[in-house]
Amino acid sequence: MSDFCELPLRTKGFYGVDFSKTLDKIKCIVFNMEGIWMEELSTADLIKRQQERNPSLECTEALIDQTLLAGGDASYSVDLVGDCVHFTVKYYLENYPVSFLFLLWQGSVQEVSCHYIKPLWRTLLRQEAEIRALVEELKRKDVEIAQYQAEGARLNRTAVQTAPFEVERFEREIPVQLPRQIVNVRNLLSSNVHRGCLMKTLDITQRAENTSPAAGAKRPSVPTVQQRSHSNRRKKRARQVVTCVDTARSSIAYDNEQEECE
């Protein structure tokens, strides 16, 4: 479960909040653009802590799944005790309040890299791969439309007609303008060499999207001349064919993401 809200932590501002579960461990992470605070404890220890805070409420693993891990509406409160952040999360189940307490400590440089910087770079690389795959798909669709037109197809509703896709024009028309950056991330992602180095650094492997035996089979070619079914039938005019190279789709997968954080 992830959230993004305003909190009065070390400095008042917007913070990301994330709860996750791996095997029997519950992890709470609070982060902003400058640092990260976190606690990881076993499910049994979290249940024991809640029983001590509120003996009248039976805290179970199912209750944790219905609240922390379900992504429901929550309210947060912060209490600074020395270097420790007492972070309280409150839910309402059938109008009954259920709260959990986490004792957060500021994360190290390695934890910031593991839980924040590397996931951001992985997301950017995956998004770049998705964009490239979509561009190739649009190009194939343009070739398909051109083939229909070459075979005599016409569009009656010209209001839905589109121009062939152009990457440069599409990027110019994106309604988002980034501030000036010291490190131009876009330049790094546009280079095959740089992307390859980033993927190695982030333990990302590139794989074919469809590895089934049928995926490697060649598509049937479009006939250029219709075959005659009878010897006395006159030969029909050869159709004009627009050819295209079928570019293999690709996606990226993450390896050893959990191991590097341990």
UniProtKB/TrEMBL annotation:
Annotated ranges, domain XLF-like N-terminal: 15-102
Coiled coil: 124-151
Domain spans labelled XLF-like coiled-coil region: 111-155
Gene3D superfamilies for this protein: DNA double-strand break repair and VJ recombination XRCC4, N-terminal, Helix hairpin bin
GO annotation terms (biological process): double-strand break repair via nonhomologous end joining
Cellular localisation: Nucleus
Name of this chain's protein: Non-homologous end-joining factor 1
Originating organism: Anopheles dirus
